[in-house]
Amino acid sequence: xxxxxxxxxxxxxxxxxxxxxxxxxxxxxxxxxxxxxxxxxxxxxxxxxxxxxxxxxxxxxxxxxxxxxxxxxxxxxxxxxxxxxxxxxxxxxxxxxxxxxxxxxxxxxxxxxxxxxxxxxxxxxxxxxxxxxxxxxxxxxxxxxxxxxxxxxxxxxxxxxxxxxxxxxxxxxxxxxxxxxxxxxxxxxxxxxxxxxxxxxxxxxxxxxxxxxxxxxxxxxxxxxxxxxxxxxxxxxxxxxxxxxxxxxxxxxxxxxxxxxxxxxxxxxxxxxxxxxxxxxxxxxxxxxxxxxxxxxxxxxxxxxxxxxxxxxxxxxxxxxxxxxxxxxxxxxxxxxxxxxxxxxxxxxxxxxxxxxxxxxxxx
Length: 364
Ligand SMILES: *Cc1c(COP(=O)(O)O)cnc(C)c1O
Fold this sequence. Notes:
four-stranded antiparallel beta sheet, 13 strands, binds pyridoxal-5'-phosphate
């Protein structure tokens, strides 16, 4: 098989997703409704009622090819920016891949941080580009080191803000200073999958950055605070020129009709996102307090998840699974002594804390 496949793909390992509930149910014979999944940073409130209504209303439209016009119009209104600044994706992962395919070849290099979202390294490998992983500074992006890592082949830089799985956040001043030093012909992707969870005081005005730095590409998703992970819809915000280029390599119907009508409805359900953020903050307070009580160290998080450290993450993870609790092991991130737990409903994280307090001390 190997000689049929380009050599730059030989070391590509599959993305490891959070374990699905049904899989654990089959493996350990636990009823699915007794399993709690806090492994993929999904919205525990389920989808917005307005999105549900929009999906039901649109079922009869499914024999037609989808048209992105309505969602782009809604985004244009929401962000007060012309439609030409948006590119739609089948999840923001699709957008990230389109950007990688647009800029990267086996002759180029791409920069991302240690402990940054795993998809960036996967895209480097998939395109054959040389991935430059810059050591993190106390689990956060080290922007000065990322600048210093730029070489003559660099075409793209990925930044996740907040980052997953560490939950770290870069402030606007730091990002602005960084962007002002990146050469104008190197594109910077700012992946803001968790931006809706931020308190207003912490939120970066990335649209203002885009006005000043046309080599910036912002990516957003409907998978997290907007609760549509299962439908797959995300988007880029960038200059019309960049959008035009991304659209040339995009499949014409990459986002399905139900995903788009649900996205429009979710975008307009401001109460739902507010409720999501309020719940997330409450559960974060409870979880961080409980982790401190148990003497476990964790990385302060700006997302809807917390990464904490322990003595034997693999054994602790197994203990959780046997008790019907799915969290995320971080061995793929080279953090073998850490686990990431999503912030779910209050009772879900209370159960997580209860299990943690009953776990063998040797694992903690
Ligand atoms: C969850 C996540 C995404 C979202 O991916 P989708 O394809 O939109 O579901 C993007 N970036 C980061 C850093 C994430 O954690």
